[in-house]
Amino acid sequence: MSRFVASAAIIIATLVIASCNNSPTAEKLTGNVSGYVALVNADGTQLSNRDSVIVTIDQTNYSTMTDSTGYWVFPNIQEGIYTVTYSKAGFGYSKSMQVQFTGGGDRDVGYVYLCKPPTFSTSAISQRAIPKGGDSASVYISSTMTDTSVKGVVKEILFFGKDTAVSWNPAKYTDRSIQTLYCRHGVDTSSIRLTSATLVNSGFVSGDTVYIAAYTASNGSNNSGYTDLATGHTVFTDIDTVRSNVLKVVMP
Hints:
Distance between the termini: 101 Å
Helix content: under 10%
Number of helices: 2
CATH superfamily of the largest domain: Immunoglobulins
Radius of gyration: 28 Å
Strand order of the largest sheet: 3-2-5-6
């Protein structure tokens, strides 16, 4: 073999080895991430047209809108863990937290509900005496709601806390209880019974002071909201923005 041929062979081999050593990392697999959004009126009825809900993936440039059926899709998404946010003017917003997606296939996030907040508030709550034949191990509360238009079943969310700062803020409440009430017209007062079991499950024991705040909420079977990762509590986004007075009661 001539010196020229041998030298050429060495150069080619060196280039091949260098090319292999500098080969790019294999591309991440991609796939589709999709789901549906249902829109719910404050009275709990669902809208047939569910378009124009804005859907985004946090900390990315991905953004899309739902079609009339509520369907949305992000094509060609790389594998990863994502937070998907849903919003529409006049409705609550929601999030799908920690969506784990493995590329190379499709990921269906499922249904998310966006609900209109109620048009009225819980103006006051107060403790009632135990009614005749009532349970002495329960706490009875009267709830006064201001309403000029709604008639029928409504929801009220009671938030429990260990100090007067209790509110819908997940960092400010220990637990919550969703109550179903009936509203007539104008100012309406309803009765709520909190069992000792409810309060025990919320981390209270007999003799503890419990602070309670109330908010009216959408009457949908599902509420707008998401789980706060720091506390593990639900963030409700379909409640009115007015807090009732904070009621102080002693657990039986």
